[in-house]
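Worked example

This section walks through a single chain of length 344. The input is the sequence exactly as stored; nothing has been trimmed or padded.
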Amino acid sequence: MTAAQVGTGQLPLVQMTGVTKHFPIQRGVMRRTVGHVRAVDGVDMTIPSGSSMGLVGESGSGKSTLGRLMLRLIEPTSGTIMFEDSDVTRLKARSLRRIRRHMQMVFQDPYSSMDPRSSVGDSVAEPLRTQLGLRGRELDERVADLFRLVRLSPTYRGRYPNEFSGGQLQRIAVARALATNPKLVVCDEPVSSLDVSTKAEVINLLADLQDELGIAYLFIAHDLGVVRHVSDRIGVMYLGRLVEEGDAEAVYSSPKHPYTQALLSAIPVPDPVVQRSRTRIVLEGDLPSPANPPSGCHFHTRCPYVMDVCRAVDPPLAVTSDGTRVFCHLIPPTGAEVLVPPAP
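Given that input, the structure is written out below as tokens.
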């Protein structure tokens, strides 16, 4: 929570504290639990109303799992998830269903998120029937309004998912997510399967809708370049943990954590001269297994600046002068300055 929010008594829209999700590993005829996959391992995150939080990291870092936990599509192992003044983790079925109208999700693959046997108009109308109880002419008018909202003609309502391009179908998925006037939309890599031009159109649409409707986003992606354009703040996940989180421009222009620096160095620049002058940080090795994460700092097995303390001790939280939250031994707990790392 920001100082301004504390002063006004305003609650954040979402506040996650110490959230974990450990999936059991079961083997044998008796399906005995022999270990756990630590998909999310103690994450704190706050999303104010009307703001955008970008979440980036490699595949397997726990981004999508965290998004599903936020909406309680899967049950957390521990921690609290506050949506306004309600603890989502403690809600019973009926109360959870009521609050779900305020929390919606746009999935990565628009084709698999739609029923191929139903028209797209029926798919958009379904939450209006089940959550808001709309029927007849009122329902038809609301569906038509939603198609116009995402820049599509209402005449498309009777068509089926196989008749649309990926970009068009993702717009329809956005329309369905907005049907119940949610306060939060979790976008789980919504543009990763689209081509470059269509990707830009969908990103611009999401930004316009936020300005128009005042909704908050959790925007999950593996590309920091994409997240920068739709996020007020950016969180970087590695092996189930947030390693850096701060203002989008601060993270993008002055990354503190070596993992964030490596992700940014991989983004191509559309200027050949600048691109040739950049130094690419190549991480050696693969992402460790979340079933057996390294001791100490989880990133130490791939970090070019690894020190002995990194292998044994979890890095403490440091808050830098620009408000960025970082978990790295290279940064003093005061966050006053970044220590000069040894040569990799």
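What to look for: Confidence is low (pLDDT under 50) at residues 1-9.
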